[in-house]
Amino acid sequence: MTVKTQELRGPKPVPPGVEYHRVLAGEERRVGRGILAILLLVGGMFGAIIAFQLVGGWIDGILWPGVPGDERLVLTPLAHAGSLIAVGLVIPWSMFLQRWLYGVRGATLSSVASGFRLDLFGRALLTVTPAFLIALAVFEFMSPGETAVWLYSDVIWMLVVTILLVPLQSAGEEYGLRGLVFRVAASWGRGRWTSLILGIGVSSALFSVIHTASDPWWNLFYLLFSLVTGYVTWRTGGVEIAVVIHAVFNTLTFLFWIALNADVSARFDRSAGGLDTVLLITGTMAFIGTAAVVWFRTRKVGPATTPIAPDEGRGDRTDLVPETA
Question: 61-70, 86-95, 117-126: lowest mean pLDDT where?
Fold first, then answer.
């Protein structure tokens, strides 16, 4: 009796057969609770970013007291690291919000297997990285941007920070947007397809909004990126491939900037006319190509898209057939 009571009081497991985006769905839509979850998610993320940037700026002032501000990069290694860590903290924050507001285990945000599937992550990394490397190389070659003078120390530490922390930042956004927000918005729909449209639509719109671009083409770029990552999250039952797409794109972008001594302030320009057409084309090809590969690999047999009952095992792998096949 004691064991049963403890199980009832703990976080709820996800029943077998429930798709990733339907985990938070129930008899009631709980729209108000969902809006609260989204507000807390975004507020917590930007609050952490501001706090870490203030601390980073204060430390920068101590370490570089004699260097005028206009002789340093707009994005110093410390400021860069602070922002990345702040967004990376969205991972535990999303898990906490899901458990607190919905009573569902935070680990289920990773996948329907209630854990991060490293095998799927590794295979996706080997496939996505070459495609995005070529796409970004073509863009940088065809549309060379403005350059700036980088301090030798900034180059070294920006490389370290980028390689170590950009993947963490990318994972944070995916757990928050393609994880929690996707599920919260999907829970507002009654049917499977209505839920899917709501989940991808709301998470994609919010992703564009938080990147504060006034250029409509940048917003289109963010929307396309969100649609692809939302699609692969649903199609594979977890955020692993979405994390790979985001992390590889962001990490390679920063590495190109560092290698080319790019003017960071110009590269971060999201005002009207800020997006280069070449990047839109090459990026679109890479994103759509990734989605096509995921569809092709999962059209018959692929990663589990719903939790598996403990007594089912792997069996004849029928549990790995997506319902859309």
Answer: 61-70
